[in-house]
Amino acid sequence: ARRLEWRTAYGPGQTRRRGIANQCLCLASCPPVQALRNLRTATWWDEHLSQENVDFLKQQVPEEYNRLTASKINPLKDEPWPRHEWEPGSRRVGLVGVKLGMMPVWTKDGERHVVTMLQVQDCHVIQYISKEEYKSKTAALVVGAKNVSPFYRTEKQMEMFRAAGVPPKQKLSVFKVTDNAIIKPGTPLYAAHFRPGQYVDVTAKTIGKGFQGVMKRYGFGGQPASHGQTKTHRRPGASGPGGDPAKVFKGKKMPGQMGNIYRTTFGLKVWRVNTKYNILYVHGSVPGHRNCLVKVRDTNLPTHCEKNQQPPFPTYFADGDEELPEDLYDEDMFRFGDESISVV
Amino acid sequence: VSTDPQGAVPLRASELPAAATRLSTAELRGLRNDLFSKEQARQRALITRTEKIEVTLEVPGHQGTLLIMNKGLSTPRCCARHLTEWHVNSSALALVDGEPWPMHRPLTQNCSLALLHFKMEDPHHVNKAYWRSCAALLGQVLQNAFKEEFSVELLTSPEVPVTSGAFCCDLVLDSQLDSWVPSEEALRSLTRDAHQLIQQNLPWEPLQVSPSFAIKIFSHSSYKQKEVEERAAESASGLVTLYRCGDHVFVSGGHLVARTGLCSQYDVTAIHNLGQTELGLLRRAQGLSLPVQLEAHHTVWRKLRGRAERLVG
């Protein structure tokens, strides 16, 4: 019943957005012209358009996106924001990527590990929120990833993207950053933001399993399949101590919704970075299904703080002086193209 | 008609001698509205006896239906009311014996009637009428938007095709405003005024009058009187069609659609300066509009709007 309340409070057409993303939409500047008529027509975008017009728009929208992104390769052309040096204790922005899949990787000692490939597609900084607006000790940056069609975004969302000068994005994530790491909205972010040897935390929505019983959800033992069990094979069994509390404690593990919630995997090592296709090879597994959007940031774990020192700060800029090779490998990683052992 | 002592050319309101009173925009509007209403009542009173005419419908679904209507009183809208509410609300123009006919003009003889809407295969009559109506609406908005101390003179709007991207309305403002450049906020305010008129769903009432009466109505504007004479010379019957929307009376170059409520998306996009003429600095106000049946997605509308901001015509 509580869940239903949320849905009706937001209205039938809107999706429920947690946290700051909703605030981002409300913070969009320039109020639209109020049409006094009610324009709530339930129709699709190309209903009244001729086939020529539809083809023209389908061809023109990607061209417009290319124009928008091309001009942002050199954000230095117009009043760049100052770039500061990394200090211990600074937090920089993260990336939003697409989970492509997994593959094996070998170390030079011969150990085999698995890595997840995360591709950074069309990642841009959308909005900067100062710490007063964000009502917190640190400022925040909103980052968007993966261009989508403008025909399925509302006017308010389109205004926010237009203010940043970027095409509309599929996912927006908020990153808390220190003041020396703020970046101008509209700047593109690349996979070279992370380097091999750094450690990251990856947050994504886990694969949804729906309403699941207690055995799958919490790994309960269940009951035997035979020997007189009457209609009881996968049930939770007892629900509490008994007469003394005479109640079931809050948080009792019971059947319910499993998956489709945000979870973070901490302390994942970056093994390899491909700068041509913007792919990060990250140790182990990451929540989410293939082609889902994940949020990648520098790790919070204190054990890996030394390895995350002197990163590209505030981010890797493509128009800078650094010339990066196509692939960056961690020093422990075995590369198949390397020369074999030679004896002098 | 205010004339100079020699009784030659009628003077403009701004050229009148100081002794004569210059009417404010609101008073002028009221005066023209009263004259229009009186003439409308007079023309209606000429019909003493109700005679019947036969109207054959050529509406899909009601092909060949015969309606017995009143001569000189029934309009194509009355005929549509005999069908369904959708016919009444969606018909923009009528075709009487193959000729375009405004929805609120009474029928005078036995005829065949077709009702035109925006989603037909061949909507060119409706398109032209719609574009002209939007230009007329823009003119009405501009006439009433400025403060009382600034005079506004609407000129003949050029006939622009729908494919050009925007409809336009030529006007000459007070000479004090020669250096005024309209800001985004000003255009938005004009758009809001236009939406108010659309929301009120006012009909564009046509009235066929003699040229002398039309000259009398526009006695405070010599430009309008010249326009009336030109239209009288062009028309076959020698009569001039005046239109009234709310309380704004004007002359139009052709037929207009039925009601302001047929427009749904309406934006005043730009006001360009065209250059100095003998009347003053000529400006062209442009706008973009789509009717109720052809609304566009906001992304598509934004692209169309980008084109409508460029100078047209």
UniProtKB/TrEMBL annotation, chain A:
<dbReference type="InterPro" id="IPR019927">
    <property type="entry name" value="Ribosomal_uL3_bac/org-type"/>
</dbReference>
<dbReference type="InterPro" id="IPR009000">
    <property type="entry name" value="Transl_B-barrel_sf"/>
</dbReference>
<keyword id="KW-0689">Ribosomal protein</keyword>
<feature type="region of interest" description="Disordered">
    <location>
        <begin position="222"/>
        <end position="247"/>
    </location>
</feature>
<keyword id="KW-0687">Ribonucleoprotein</keyword>
<dbReference type="GO" id="GO:0006412">
    <property type="term" value="P:translation"/>
</dbReference>
<dbReference type="GO" id="GO:0005743">
    <property type="term" value="C:mitochondrial inner membrane"/>
</dbReference>
<dbReference type="Pfam" id="PF00297">
    <property type="entry name" value="Ribosomal_L3"/>
</dbReference>
<dbReference type="GO" id="GO:0003735">
    <property type="term" value="F:structural constituent of ribosome"/>
</dbReference>
<comment type="similarity">
    <text>Belongs to the universal ribosomal protein uL3 family.</text>
</comment>
<protein>
    <recommendedName>
        <fullName>Large ribosomal subunit protein uL3m</fullName>
    </recommendedName>
</protein>
<keyword id="KW-0496">Mitochondrion</keyword>
<keyword id="KW-0809">Transit peptide</keyword>
<dbReference type="GO" id="GO:0005762">
    <property type="term" value="C:mitochondrial large ribosomal subunit"/>
</dbReference>
<dbReference type="InterPro" id="IPR019926">
    <property type="entry name" value="Ribosomal_uL3_CS"/>
</dbReference>
<dbReference type="InterPro" id="IPR000597">
    <property type="entry name" value="Ribosomal_uL3"/>
</dbReference>
From TrEMBL, chain B:
<keyword id="KW-0689">Ribosomal protein</keyword>
<comment type="similarity">
    <text>Belongs to the mitochondrion-specific ribosomal protein mL39 family.</text>
</comment>
<dbReference type="GO" id="GO:0003723">
    <property type="term" value="F:RNA binding"/>
</dbReference>
<dbReference type="GO" id="GO:0005840">
    <property type="term" value="C:ribosome"/>
</dbReference>
<dbReference type="InterPro" id="IPR012675">
    <property type="entry name" value="Beta-grasp_dom_sf"/>
</dbReference>
<dbReference type="GO" id="GO:0000166">
    <property type="term" value="F:nucleotide binding"/>
</dbReference>
<dbReference type="GO" id="GO:1990904">
    <property type="term" value="C:ribonucleoprotein complex"/>
</dbReference>
<dbReference type="GO" id="GO:0005739">
    <property type="term" value="C:mitochondrion"/>
</dbReference>
<keyword id="KW-0687">Ribonucleoprotein</keyword>
<protein>
    <recommendedName>
        <fullName>Large ribosomal subunit protein mL39</fullName>
    </recommendedName>
</protein>
<dbReference type="InterPro" id="IPR050062">
    <property type="entry name" value="Pro-tRNA_synthetase"/>
</dbReference>
<keyword id="KW-0496">Mitochondrion</keyword>
<dbReference type="InterPro" id="IPR018163">
    <property type="entry name" value="Thr/Ala-tRNA-synth_IIc_edit"/>
</dbReference>
